[in-house]
Design a protein that fits this description.
Number of strands: 0
Distance between the termini: 20 Å
Low-confidence stretches: none
Shape: elongated
Mean pLDDT: 91
Radius of gyration: 18 Å
Number of helices: 2
Oligomer: single chain
Length: 79
């Protein structure tokens, strides 16, 4: 927000809010896909604990890779 002129705060805030919501929705979509692939059609309360842990590990690995990609893209932008 420091790079935005005072007259455009409302527009910048709405863009920022939209991007935050898109990020949250995308994250939930990724987790839903991982749960669907690993657990299949079984219910969460009937799944083996090892499968739930595997689901968490896969999700964290995916989000770690996305974070590293974001860091590199941010650093590249400043060059």
């Amino acid at each position: 927000m420091a790079c935005v002129e005072k007259e455009e705060y409302s527009l910048a805030n709405s863009v920022l809010s939209t991007m935050r919501t898109v990020g949250q929705s995308s994250s939930m979509a990724v987790v839903t896909v991982v749960v669907g692939v690993v657990l299949g059609s079984s219910a969460l309360d009937q799944s083996e604990p090892a499968k739930l842990v595997e689901t968490m590990h896969i999700s964290f690995a995916i989000f770690f890779c996305l974070c590293v990609l974001g860091i590199f893209l941010s650093l590249k932008r400043k060059e």
